[in-house]
Automatic annotation (TrEMBL):
Stretches assigned to the ABC transmembrane type-1 domain: 88-447
Superkingdom as given in the UniProt entry: Bacteria
Protein name (database record): ABC transporter permease subunit
Organism, as annotated: Streptomyces coffeae
Gene3D superfamilies, alphabetized: Immunoglobulins, MetI-like
Source species taxonomy: Bacteria, Bacillati, Actinomycetota, Actinomycetes, Kitasatosporales
TM segment ranges: 32-54, 92-112, 124-145, 327-348, 369-387, 427-448
Amino acid sequence: MSATDRKVLPATAGSTPSGPTPRSRAARRRKLISLAFLLPALLILGALVAYPILFSVGRSFFDASGDTFVGADNYTEMFQDPATMKAIRNSAIWVIVAPVLLTGLGLILAVLTEKIRWATAFKLLMFMPMAISFLAAGIIFRVAYEQDPDRGVLNAVTVGVHDAFSGDTAGYPTAHPQNPRTIPAQKDGSYRTAKTASPGDTVNLGLVGVPPKDVPKEAKPARQASSAPAAKGELRGVVYIDFTLGGGGKPGRVDPTERGLPQLAVEAVRDGKVVATATTGNDGAYRFEDLPPGDYALQLPKKDFAEAYQGISWLGPSLITPAIIGAYLWIWTGFSMVLIGAGLASLPRDALEAARMDGANEWQIFRKITVPLLSPVLGVVFVTTVINVMKVFDLVYIIAPGPVQQDASVLATRMWLVSFGGGNNQGLGSALGVLLLVLVVPAMALNIRRFRRSQS
């Protein structure tokens, strides 16, 4: 049979076309378009995330110079270094304390703000610290935590409250008698007159070594009070600065411009026992009335020369980590409150109203209904905070002073110090970075898992 006589047989039902179908071509085209849009993001992600991770993992197996392969020596050294172990301990404190406090504060504030009329303004005020960089917040709290009450606002409040309730008198720690022979020092740190006096006498006690900044503004000249005669049965005198600015004064005599020292305790001592106590006024005057006849020594007790209360050492080794966590809470509490508040607003109100109608009080509703229903949101806030505190660097580096930097160090700051802050050992620093990545990855995976579960 010739070719022209051949007939084209129709395709059978079970046969398949040899080329791609229009549907498959459209699907392939969509994939190519998607890949074209994703390619820039994938390139950036690879350059900024994937490559640094792989490079750090590889670098962690080399020495400080990067030329010699040392295997796992950097990881061994990392866990044998006391400073690194302290950083790991501090990071553990951050992970345990900060997320719990932040989630708890956010939950409490979110619930309470539902009960007030100006909730929006309060949320805005609480959220404002999020607009401040960690660097600026660190500088703010570095000043707020200063030991000097004249600079540190927290210690200014602490000292004010202490002075208001303790009743301690003012102290002049650098003061001492002008003539140690007439007012010798005692073993307990006090000063007592060598000669005794009786009621009706006037005894002036001159001190030197008081810096002008330590003299209270209310201190007045002591000349008039020192020359006032003592009444019958009264033992009196002044405690004054026995030094004339510019010279010209005479030691042991109250000169016209010499001021008294206010708020000092003066004790009358007889037979080694304190029988009466007086306090100096603004002109330094003191007086004992109705003393029984006899001989008395006048004593300036130790507390007159004690250091004034300076507040709490917020930036000391024992409190530096809690202080920095406090600064972190100030920044992130608004974020936690707003996020939990959004979840609270979406709760089914019929369940809450039904519980109230059944006789449940607000605490029972909060504990048994509100918190369980908010558990997905609370979980997101908690895990997100865990990831953030594992990477905290700015606040620790800015707030902690140099002498206590090691006491406040966390893994991120330790990694920077070892690599660039003087250690110049980027092999060990890379090992610390890998450790930090390994610790963060589980929390990130848990967060992604929770996100996918909420989307399903």
